[in-house]
Specification:
With 511 residues, the protein is an alpha/beta fold. The chain has helices at 7-20, 56-73, 78-94, 96-107, 111-131, 170-182, 195-212, 226-234, 247-259, 282-294, 314-327, 346-361, 415-423, 438-447, and strands at 35-40, 47-53, 139-140, 147-155, 158-162, 185-189, 238-244, 263-267, 272-276, 304-310, 365-368, 372-373, 383-384, 387-390, 406-412, 427-428, 430-434, 452-455, 467-468, 471-472, 479-480, 489-497. The chain has 2 domains: 7-268 and 475-491, Aldehyde Dehydrogenase, Chain A, domain 1; 272-463, Aldehyde Dehydrogenase, Chain A, domain 2, CATH 3.40.309.10. It is globular, with a radius of gyration of 24 Å. The structure holds nicotinamide-adenine-dinucleotide. The site of nicotinamide-adenine-dinucleotide has 30 residues, from helix 8 and helix 9.
């Protein structure tokens, strides 16, 4: 463990990032005219300044402006719309390191993970550029002579994106790159814990939009907390709300959008598990498990939270995990070699302590970690040792997502039992099996009830090419690759009659 950086080091890092991304230093000045939001770094716990926030009225004005921009953008040919995301991707590539610095300061990610997040944005821009020439409909034979029957896809309208703190910009780009080529405008309510990274990403998009001649106000940002998100959720001009965050948030947002018959795409909490079988390559499984469970300080929606190990190898495997955990260096993500950074705030730390207490009361034994470190140096920052807890079975605490690095371990005797334990939680995002047996792998892929099921790789670290999302309380949404573009468009079925007659379908006679 090394000393934490000074306030000045963090401020310098942030200033470099913001100015390179074209965000004015005025972004961090209190505004007399509007509400204000504090900005903070979890690395030191220090206040970074105050950001002028939206009011419900200014948020509604931005939605109205986006609606106007949509009216123009929808008529631009899709391959031409692709030029906007192409340019955005180029600018993100040119400023990858600087945008990553803002992510590190605000979300506490290591530079490598922060740069990976920006790379994901670049990747989805490339993907969306290709997609702009592939917004395919189908043509099918009509049952009537002299008729053509086809399905076509059209821009949807204003898309509202709500994002979480732990992927402050990548998830936004998954939605935005596809929505823009689909012909939509995008209004974004980023996490109140990561507004500066959002401003950096948006500033680069605004620059790309100006360069390619896209309409103004095509992608405004709403700054604020839940109340400002709520304005967007209730606004009937927002055709689709794509919301990423906790299950609690989804429970609040989902019914409101449904009540106005809006479309909703939910990407909510996970409670991800990995099964380790006796045939697994143990070294590979160990690395996969430790990265997925302790990486990003347990603050990924895909973080590994439950380990289901065969009883014949459990003691040995858990000893190896504990030994690997003891080698993880915890501290400021700005320091070389640090693998575990801070929790986002005190609330996360409290939630972790309370889950550990509950686990113990349910018969769990903490094998390692759980304690706070570096508190004397920085009482307002919250660093913890990732915890491994042996559980007597899958108890109540294991059915909730605690957004902190706790890995619960249970054992199984046959694969059916492992699968039953695996699926017996309310969430269904990501899952993994470590095995060398084809039959075990195939059975797992058929039976895991998650949106993501992996073999011989951990639960976290998805690529943009495959659709991303989960089942059950994770919300059922899919974003990013393959067919996800359809969520941002509306489908129409067209029948064209060139016969000169008017035959009715199903042979119906009338007049
Ligand atoms: P959060 O639910 O506290 O907040 C997420 C976003 O929702 C924020 O922008 C917040 O302002 C907004 N919000 C909250 N309540 C709202 C309401 N009633 N109306 C409108 N907006 C509202 O989540 P968080 O702490 O920022 O992020 C962590 C959570 O996000 C974890 O549960 C994690 O699993 C989940 N997550 C899921 C995915 C995924 O793709 N499935 C990805 C990242 C994070």
């Amino acid at each position: 463990m090394t000393a934490l950086p000074t306030d000045q080091t963090i401020t310098d890092l942030l200033t470099e990032g913001l100015s390179a991304c074209g965000v004015s230093a005025d972004a961090l000045k209190e505004s007399a005219a509007s509400a204000n939001l504090p900005a903070r770094s979890p690395i030191t716990g220090q206040d970074l300044g105050t950001i002028a926030a939206d009011t419900p009225d200014s948020a509604a004005d931005k939605i109205a402006a986006a609606q106007q921009a949509f009216e123009a953008w929808r008529d631009v040919p899709a391959p031409v719309r692709g030029q906007l995301v192409q340019r955005w991707g180029q600018l993100l590539g040119e400023h990858k390191e600087e945008l990553a610095k803002i992510i590190t300061v605000e979300a506490g990610k290591t530079p490598s993970e922060a740069a990976g997040e920006v790379q994901e944005m670049i990747d989805i821009c490339e993907f969306a550029l290709g997609q702009s020439r592939q917004l395919w409909g189908k043509t099918m034979p009509s049952e009537r002579p002299g008729h053509r029957l086809m399905e076509t896809w059209h821009p949807l309208g204003v898309v509202g994106v709500i994002s979480a703190f732990n992927f402050p910009v990548a998830v936004y780009s998954w939605n935005t790159a596809l929505a823009l080529v689909a012909g939509d405008a995008v209004v974004w309510k980023p996490s109140e814990n990561a507004v500066l990274a959002a401003l950096g990403a948006q500033s680069l998009l605004a620059r790309a939009a100006a360069e390619v001649g896209a309409p103004e106000n095509l992608a405004p940002v709403l700054i604020g907390g839940r109340d400002i998100g709520d304005v967007m959720v209730r606004d009937g001009r927002v055709a689709l709300v794509s919301a990423t965050g906790s299950v609690r948030m989804g429970r609040e947002v989902g019914p409101v959008v449904a009540a106005r018959f809006g479309r909703i795409l939910l990407e909510l909490g996970g409670n991800n598990a990995a099964i380790v079988t006796p045939s697994a390559d143990i070294d590979l499984a160990l690395r996969g498990v430790v990265f997925a469970a302790a990486g990003t300080a347990g603050q990924r929606c895909t973080t590994l939270r439950r380990l289901i190990v065969h009883e014949s190898i459990a003691d040995d495997f858990v000893d190896k995990v504990v030994a690997a955990y003891r080698t993880l260096s915890i501290g400021s993500p700005t320091d070389d070699g640090v693998l575990v950074g801070p929790l986002i705030n005190e609330g996360s730390y409290e939630a972790m302590q309370s889950a550990l207490k509950q686990a113990e009361s349910e018969g769990g034994k903490v094998r390692c970690g759980g304690g706070r470190v570096l508190a004397d140096e920085r009482p307002d920052a919250h660093y913890v040792e990732p915890a491994v807890v042996r559980m007597p079975g899958q108890t109540a605490v294991m059915k909730d997502e605690t957004f902190a690095p706790i890995l619960y371990v249970v054992t199984y005797s046959d694969l059916d039992e492992a699968l039953e334990i695996h699926n017996d939680v309310p969430q269904g995002l990501s899952s993994a099996i470590f095995t060398s047996e084809l039959a075990e792998s195939e059975r797992f892929l058929a039976r895991s009830d998650c949106g993501i099921a992996n073999v011989n790789i951990g639960t976290s670290g998805a690529e943009i090419g495959g659709a991303f999302g989960g089942e059950k309380e994770t919300g059922g949404g899919r974003e990013s690759g393959t067919d996800s573009w359809k969520a941002y468009m509306r489908q129409a079925t067209n029948t064209i009659n060139y016969s000169g007659e008017l035959p009715l379908a199903q042979g119906v006679e009338f007049l």
